[in-house]
Specification:
This protein has about 200 residues and is mainly alpha-helical. The chain folds into two domains: about 50 residues, no CATH class; about 100 residues, no CATH class. Helices cover about 45% and strands about 10% of the residues. The strands form three sheets. The chain has a two-stranded antiparallel sheet. α3 packs across α5. The radius of gyration is 25 Å and the shape is elongated. The termini are far apart. The C terminus is likely disordered.
Length: about 200
């Protein structure tokens, strides 16, 4: 047993990281306190770390790209898994930054239905400037720019509805209803079209 100099608790020896295997030296801080300390340091230093990474990449781009290309060629399955993990992490952070997992129009909360919408309906022009159809590059742009205003969380129905209805979701006009079993909460999203004097478009 050993007493942690940080939290003062007595813990088993294996809760203290071994720093010198030959001499048997271990940290005086327990693993839990080390994790907290490192996490706090990373939070305080995240801007400095990001700038260092950008500078390091810029100065060593060719070597890094070559090393990455070799690794991708040798590990295609792991590369795909890592790319998906990175994408979902960026997507999650963006959704949380713009209000969490709920559609700003109809209240839908199913994560698989949700996406980030351009409030000013200028998504096509924005993606063209980014040189991307969206995806990870778009979410990364949001993160690197501090999640600027002008974006919102919408479900796919409301997102496409705004696009096809001149920038205004049909839910706002009461021309559609939410299917039974949906998690949408907004009353106006469930209003039948007939109650608003509108006719449904035949499909």
């Amino acid at each position: 047993m050993r007493t942690c100099k940080k939290c003062g608790k007595r813990k088993p020896l294996d809760q203290f990281e071994l720093v010198d295997k030959e001499r048997g030296w271990r940290r005086h801080e327990c693993r839990a306190c080390v994790r907290i300390r490192v996490s706090e340091w990373a939070e305080r230093s995240k801007d400095r770390i990001r700038e260092w990474r950008k500078r390091h990449y810029r100065d060593n781009r060719e070597k890094i790209m070559k090393r990455v290309a070799e690794w991708v060629a040798q590990n295609p399955d792991r590369r795909r898994k890592n790319a998906l993990s990175h994408y979902y992490r960026l997507q999650h952070d963006a959704v949380m930054a713009y209000g969490g997992y709920v559609c700003a129009c109809c209240g839908e909360t199913e994560p698989l239905f949700l996406t980030i919408d351009h409030v000013r309906s200028d998504g096509a022009a924005h993606r063209k400037r980014l040189g991307s159809l969206g995806g990870a590059r778009f979410y990364k742009w949001l993160r690197d720019n501090g999640y600027p205003p002008g974006f919102q969380v919408l479900c796919m129905n409301c997102n496409h509805g705004r696009h096809r209805n001149g920038g205004k979701c049909p839910h706002k006009e009461g021309v559609t209803t939410i299917p039974k079993g949906s998690r949408a909460k907004r009353p106006e999203a469930h209003s039948p079209a007939e109650a608003h004097g509108r006719r449904r478009v035949k499909r």
